[in-house]
Specification:
Elements (H helix, E strand, L loop, with lengths): L1 H30 L1 H9 L5 H20 L8 H25 L2 H9 L5 H21 L8
Helix pairs in contact: 4-6
Length: 144
């Protein structure tokens, strides 16, 4: 009976993971992060590589979380990794804001005429700082 429960738990876990991961990748696709980055960098011919890297990164992230994997890589690689995570989340946030037209609505409501570049830069740098604090200083965001 215990074996049946474990097998059921595996199938439920895999099914749930597939649904959630499908939703996350559909969200990233709808927001258009990959196509937008390829368009801005002039690398439209490498969209398949971007998509593959995103899928492999998601799989490795899930595997690392599932098996509690830790790599003794040191501070410098952790800073580089954190920078990349921050850039990705910044791009995701800006793409989402662009898709749902947050920025034009915000500028109309707050009557901001100039300085929008600095507002968007502050959002991206805030996400970058959060990633650096999370990955470089172990336990920074854990409650006491």
């Amino acid at each position: 009976m215990e074996l049946i429960k474990q097998i059921a738990a595996v199938f439920i876990g895999l099914g749930s993971g597939l649904v959630i991961s499908g939703a996350v990748y559909a969200f990233i696709s709808v927001v258009g992060v990959v196509t937008r980055l390829a368009q801005k960098t002039g690398t439209r011919n490498r969209i398949r590589l971007y998509e593959s890297a995103l899928a492999v990164g998601g799989l490795l992230g899930v595997a690392a979380g599932l098996f509690d994997a830790r790599l003794p890589i040191g501070r410098i690689p952790a800073v580089i990794y954190s920078f990349c995570i921050g850039v990705f989340y910044g791009c995701l946030a800006v793409s989402l804001a662009e898709v749902i037209n947050v920025i034009p609505i915000l500028t109309r409501r707050t009557k901001i005429q100039r300085g929008m570049f600095f507002f968007i830069l502050a959002i991206a740098l805030g996400k970058l700082a959060g990633s650096l604090l999370y990955y470089v200083i172990p336990g920074f965001f854990k409650p006491e």
